[in-house]
Design brief:
Blueprint lengths: L3 E2 L3 E6 L4 E7 L2 E6 L3 E6 L5 E6 L6 E4 L5 E6 L2 E6 L5 E4 L8 E5 L2 E6 L2 E6 L4 E4 L9 E5 L4 E6 L2 E6 L7 E4 L4 E6 L5 E6 L4 E5 L5 E4 L9 E3 L5 E4 L4 E6 L11 E4 L4 E6 L6 E6 L3 E6 L8 E2 L3 E4 L5 E6 L4 E6 L3 E6 L7
Parallel strand pairs: 1-31, 26-30
Antiparallel strand pairs: 2-34, 3-4, 4-5, 5-6, 7-8, 8-9, 9-10, 11-12, 12-13, 13-14, 15-16, 16-17, 17-18, 19-20, 20-21, 21-22, 23-24, 24-25, 25-26, 27-28, 28-29, 29-31, 32-33, 33-34
Length: about 350
């Protein structure tokens, strides 16, 4: 049974640009706004430490694992920011840049039109992929940064470092909207426009499709163990079990709270704790792996905001949950380990 509570707010600030993306690493938080303002905040107090402007708007923001660098992407290009000195490098490429992914503190992949560009932290290009069939929609690193998975219409392509042509292709006819790679490296999953999740087993290329969702799948996330995958695409969040032989022939757990899911973020660690956000402004905290398959779960806790839709969620460590709301509020919630979640 869920418990609605007054939000345990650590800090609460307003930003000028409606948030669309969040990233948290170490002691930093990055907030990207729809019109292109990217702000870097101190996780402890919410104080602004730096900012940059991305012409044409922003789509995503990603902090490097060491919190020393930031990559932001948007409809007309991308930008890099260095914590030391606060230097920003903005590239107006004219290409739709949907996503960025860091392989480590000094190497980042940027979706740029039909290619993926791999840059060092100063923005110097190291290599690029050959053009895909359509615009790159998402990307992820595998094998400790030795292989890059690139999603575009019709397939996910795997590129080794400095190898423009793919060394492996995982085909599926359709538009891939989201990409999730298990931390174990065993599974690649795409969320698709056709309201399905398609899965490839990397060991042998075995495939599986989970269909029957009422809406497109635009959010996919593995937990740190790589055994649990959360997805939107329905009023219920679905959580699939990827342990053992994987989810084939099984049913997911269903998490019911929001009418429309707008954000998903696993709590760091392998404890099966998930945060979700909805268009009603509610942030829900879950024991997402409790119970049995086909069982519908209710939140362990609900954090009620001011009614504005949740735009994004991110964990700044295991005890601080950051929520960005579409009305321009950014809040930090304390989630102690000894509470209900």
């Amino acid at each position: 049974m869920s418990t609605a509570v007054e939000a345990p707010t650590v800090w609460d600030i307003a930003v000028d640009d409606a948030p669309v993306s969040l990233s948290a690493r170490g002691d930093l938080i990055a907030v990207a706004g729809a019109e292109g303002t990217v702000r870097v905040l101190d996780a402890a107090m919410g104080a602004e430490l730096g900012s940059l402007e991305l012409p044409g708007g922003a789509l995503s923001v990603q902090l490097a694992p060491d919190a020393g660098h930031l990559a932001a992407t948007g409809p007309t290009g991308y930008a890099l920011w260095r914590r030391t000195g606060g230097r920003a490098t903005v590239r107006e490429s004219g290409a739709w840049s949907a996503a960025a992914a860091w392989a480590g503190p000094e190497r980042v992949a940027i979706a740029s039109g039909r290619r993926a560009l791999v840059l060092d932290a100063d923005g110097e290009e190291l290599w690029r992929t050959d053009p895909a069939a359509s615009t790159v929609t998402d990307l992820a690193w595998m094998r400790q940064g030795r292989r890059l998975a690139v999603a575009a219409y019709g397939a996910v392509h795997g590129h080794e470092r400095h190898t423009p042509k793919p060394v492996v292709t995982y085909p599926y006819v359709g538009s891939h909207l989201a990409l999730a790679v298990a931390p174990t490296g065993r599974w690649i999953c795409s969320g698709n426009q056709d309201a399905s999740i398609h899965i490839w087993r990397t060991r042998d290329g075995g495939e599986l499709t989970m269909s029957g969702y009422p809406e497109k799948i635009s959010r996919l996330a593995f937990d740190d163990s790589g055994f649990w995958l959360a997805a939107d695409g329905a009023p219920d969040i679905t959580v699939w079990d990827f342990s053992g032989k994987g989810p084939e022939g099984t049913a997911p757990r269903s998490l019911r709270c929001h009418e429309t899911i707008t954000a998903l973020a696993w709590r760091p660690g392998a404890g099966g704790r998930l945060a979700s956000g909805g268009d009603d402004g509610t942030v829900a905290l879950w024991y997402a792996t409790a119970g049995r398959a086909q069982q519908r779960l209710r939140p362990a806790r609900e954090l009620t905001g001011d009614g504005a839709a949740v735009a994004a969620l991110a964990w700044a460590g295991p005890h601080l949950l950051i929520a960005a709301y579409r009305n321009g509020r950014v809040r930090a919630y304390g989630v102690p380990s000894r509470t209900a979640l």
